[in-house]
Structures are given as structure tokens and as C-alpha cells.
Write a structure and sequence with these properties.
The chain has 297 residues and is α/β, with parallel strands linked by helices. It is built from 10 helices and 12 strands. The strands form 6 sheets. It has a two-stranded parallel ribbon. Helix 3 (57-80) runs parallel beside helix 6, helix 4 (116-144) packs antiparallel against helix 6 and helix 4 (116-144) packs across helix 7 (210-219). The chain starts with a strand and ends with a strand.
Length: 297
């Protein structure tokens, strides 16, 4: 989840082949300080530890690669466009309270975003980078996964996205929808599933989530209409998975349907930006899981 904080705007002035003293100071402020690096490694270590407790070493490392690719995608897109962001902030979660060992990761955008083109580049960079890493991770993990007979024992069942169904059918010959067999996910496959699930959550077209950035870049202020429609859809899904109510409440409190503030709304995305946005929307439909986790009695 990505959050925007407006903290001022800085002008870059070039004199010959050198930057002015003011510009050097601005560039220094764009670089992470010692405190940022300390926070980065503390949160990284804590998240690696909680995910290790949740699923073991292979799960923790695989999930770190996916979440890291996602957030560093945003980070480098911001760097490319002169927009300051924090380093990726990994969020640990006690495995006993949260099954997956993490609440994901985020960055904080610390400068105003210039226009809808830059908003699109920052918005799509994370989901696309995370997806590109998560899919091979899932594929590798499925090769190590096992097909077992359905025993009727109690346990957790992970929901199926479109891409999960396609890949499991291609690699294992069965889908997670089968009533006669269960797929016992290898820890690497579980990390791939979690990575795709986090990607789908971030692509919700609401507020300052990645999906909200992308839709705002494509549609401007009209995106708020779609955000409210999707929020209504999320409320409908509570009937099938009550935990969507928690997500809906968090989205309402923290986003309030507000889009990222832009300096210039009139600079429209180019064709390449639109194509990237459509690709991200396609990724959402491939990765979204209506009922993510279910307790089997």
C-alpha cells in the first residue's frame, strides 16, 4: 500500500554542466539518510523473521523477493521522475495473529506528483514488477507442490485466482477447484500465492492504492466514481468472506476515496502510459481472489 504526503516542491536549475548549491542540497534530501536505512533494515529483518515463523526459510525469502520487487519498482519510478519516496517499509505481523506473517510493504511518497504521466509510471511500476517476480515464483513452487487426496480434515484453504487455476492445471494437471484432490502448496508456491494476492489488493482502484493511482491517471477525477462502485462491490463480497469488511473499513478510514494530489492535472498520459495502465488492470483480473482464505471444517 502506498501513501502520499505532500511536503513541498523543489526546482532543479542547471548552470552549464554543474548544479547550483541549492540543487545539490535538494539532491541530498532525495537520498535516504542513515535513519531511513536503519528503519529499512530493522523492518526487513523483523518481516523476514515473522514470515520465517509463518512458512519457513524458502517462504520468507521468496516472499521478500516479490514484495521487494513491488516496492522498489515504486521507489525507482519515483527516483526516475524526481519524486522523493521513502525506502520500502516492510510490515511484519505475528504469525499467530496473521497467518501469512506480514501485512505486506509500502512506501511513502514525500513530494507532490507532477502530473498524470508520472502518477501512472509510479503507480504501475510496483504491481508489474511484483507480478513479474511472483509468477515465476509460483510456477517453481507448483513444480515442488504435491497432489493429495481430499481427507476431510480441518485446515485452511487458499482461494484461487484465474492465474492460479491456469498454472496449476498446466503444471499439476488439476485445479484448486477440484473436490477430489487438494494441492499441498510448497512454501515457494505459497509465497507466490501471497505475492499475487498482495498485488491484487494494491490494485484496488481506490484512493492512493496503486489501482487508485492508475485509474486517476487514466480518467482523472472521474476515477472517484469507479472507486465508490468498487467499494460497494467489496461490501457485497463480505457475504462470501467476512474479512473483506475489515479491508473495507481500513480503505474508508485511510483513503476516503481521495486521489493523489497532482501539480498539473492537464498533462495527460501518453499511449505508452495508457498501455501500462491497461496491463495493470489485466493483472488485477488475473490475480483477484473473491474468497482468499477459508477455514475448512
Amino acid at each position: 500500500m502506498d501513501e502520499n504526503i505532500q511536503q513541498g516542491n523543489y526546482d532543479r536549475k542547471i548552470k552549464g554542466d554543474e548544479f547550483s548549491t541549492a540543487d545539490l542540497q535538494v539532491n541530498d534530501r532525495k537520498r535516504p539518510g542513515l535513519g531511513s536505512w536503519v528503519l529499512f533494515f530493522v523492518l526487513l529483518g523483523s518481516t523476514l523473521f515473522t514470515t520465517y515463523l509463518a512458512g519457513g526459510k524458502l517462504y520468507a525469502l521468496s516472499l521478500f523477493l516479490i514484495l521487494g520487487a513491488h516496492e522498489f519498482g515504486h521507489y525507482f519510478a519515483g527516483l526516475k521522475n524526481g519524486v522523493r519516496t521513502t525506502l520500502p517499509l516492510f510490515i511484519p505481523a505475528p504469525p499467530g495473529m496473521f497467518l501469512l506473517g506480514t501485512f505486506g510493504a509500502m512506501i511513502v511518497i514525500k513530494d507532490p506528483i507532477p502530473n498524470r504521466r508520472v502518477l501512472m509510471e509510479i503507480g504501475v511500476a510496483g504491481p508489474i514488477a511484483g507480478f513479474v517476480v511472483a509468477v515465476p515464483t509460483l510456477i517453481i513452487g507448483l513444480f515442488f507442490s504435491e497432489i493429495v487426496a481430499a481427507t476431510g480434515e480441518r485446515g485452511f484453504s487458499f482461494g484461487s485466482s484465474v492465474i492460479m487455476i491456469i498454472l496449476s492445471k498446466a503444471i499439476l494437471g488439476v485445479t484448486p477447484l477440484s473436490v477430489d484432490f487438494n494441492i499441498q502448496l510448497h512454501p515457494i508456491a505459497l509465497a507466490g500465492w501471497v505475492g499475487l494476492f498482495v498485488t491484487a489488493i494494491n490494485l484496488f482502484p481506490i484512493g492512493q492504492l496503486d489501482g487508485g493511482h492508475i485509474l486517476h491517471a487514466l480518467l482523472g477525477k472521474k476515477s472517484q466514481v469507479w472507486a465508490k462502485l468498487f467499494f460497494g462491490f467489496l461490501l457485497f463480497l463480505i457475504y462470501f468472506w467476512p474479512n473483506w469488511g475489515i479491508w473495507a473499513l481500513l480503505l474508508l478510514v485511510f483513503t476516503r476515496f481521495k486521489s493523489a494530489p497532482l501539480e498539473d492535472e492537464e498533462v495527460l498520459p501518453q499511449r505508452i502510459h495508457k498501455r501500462a495502465g491497461y496491463a495493470a488492470i489485466a493483472i488485477f483480473f488475473l490475480t483477484f481472489v473473491p474468497v482468499p482464505i477459508e477455514l475448512i471444517n
